[in-house]
Every structure is written in C-alpha cells, then in structure tokens.
Amino acid sequence: MIIVSNNEIHDFGVGYLTGVLESLDNSLIPIHTAIENSSAWEVENYCDHGEYLIGVGFCVIQKYLFDVLQDLEIDPGLARDLGSKSNNDVAVARLIHSAANYWKHAPEWHIWLQDLKPKSQKTIDEVLHTRSFAHYPLSDLCCENSLLLVNCLPYLVEWRKAIYDYIEKNV
Q: Which of 51, 70, 83, 164 is the most exposed place for a label (fewest CB within 10 A)?
C-alpha cells in the first residue's frame, strides 16, 4: 500500500518486499557457496535451485511493480521504461518484468520454441540482455547486482519516484 501526503511517499509494500527478498537471499547465499565449492558434476543442480529462487524473487518484484501502478493513470509499458537503466541502457523495471515473465513461461516456450510469438521472443531477448545465449539467464541478470535480490530495492525506489514524478508533470 502506498500513501502520498504532502508530496511524501509512504510505501508499506516495499517493507513486505524487503522481507521476502531477504528470505530468498538467505536461501541463495549457501547455494552460491556450494556452487563455488562443488565439482562440475554437482554445480548444475545448485544452479537450477538458485535460478528457481531468483525467478521467484523476480515474480515477487513484478507484483510490487504492479502494486505501485495500481490506481495510477499511466500506461504500464511506459511506466516500465522509467527509472534506472542497466549497463546496456534497458530500464531495470522492464528487465525485472521480462525476467518474471520468462521464469513463469519458459517451460512452455521450450516446447514451442520454433513457434514463439513476437511478444514472447521480445521477453527472451530482453532477459538475455544482449547475450546470444545463457544457461541461467536470471542468475546472469542478478549478478549485475552481486547475486542478491535485495540489491534491486534501490532501483525500485528510484523507479517508484520516477513514476510519481512523471504523473505529477504529465497527468
């Protein structure tokens, strides 16, 4: 829940999000350690587990993105392009949205890879983030933030501010 009063934003949802992301990060830390200390034969299982948790994290963050936009007069596509940009000049909110969709839909896309719709292909391209392939694309995206999901929080707070600034100037 977000309450705006006297040009100040009070965002209770970011507190809930922080708790969930910290919990996921606490599960990711031992996985990351295990990956560093494992044989090549064991690594894939740990990577799969880490990718799963990171996917859950991106989905929780995606819900936060939609929570921020609830009841606001702004196109969600435009909103995802506001705020911080990645090293490749893609909006962080757009990357998170695409990462969550990728994680949710990748199993069905794997089956029909040759028949992907343009929107699905765009999601994959955004998640790959200029790489031609990736075995663990969500982990690769998260690595830009040192593999901890809570490191996304400052970008989300900046994005939320950009949303309210945009609305103040344009609506």
A: 70
Q: Are 138 and 24 in contact (CB under 8 A)?
A: no
d(CA 95, CA 76): 13
What's the half-sphere exposure (Cβ side, CA atoms, 13 Å) at 143? 13
Percent of the chain exceeding pLDDT 90 equals: 43
pTM of the model: 0.83
Q: Quote the Cα angle for 123-144-58, to 5°.
A: 45
Cβ pair 109, 120 in contact under 8 A: yes
Specify the amino acid at residue 41.
W
Q: Is the dihedral of CA 36, 45, 56, 130 positive or negative?
A: positive
Residue 17 to residue 73: CA distance in whole angstroms: 23
Cβ contact 149:25 at 8 Å: yes
44: part of which helix (H) or strand (E)?
helix 40-69
Task: Specify whether the CB–CB gap between 63 and 69 falls below 8 A.
Answer: no
Pull the structure tokens for residue 16.
């809930």
**Is residue 143 predicted with pLDDT exceeding 80?**
no
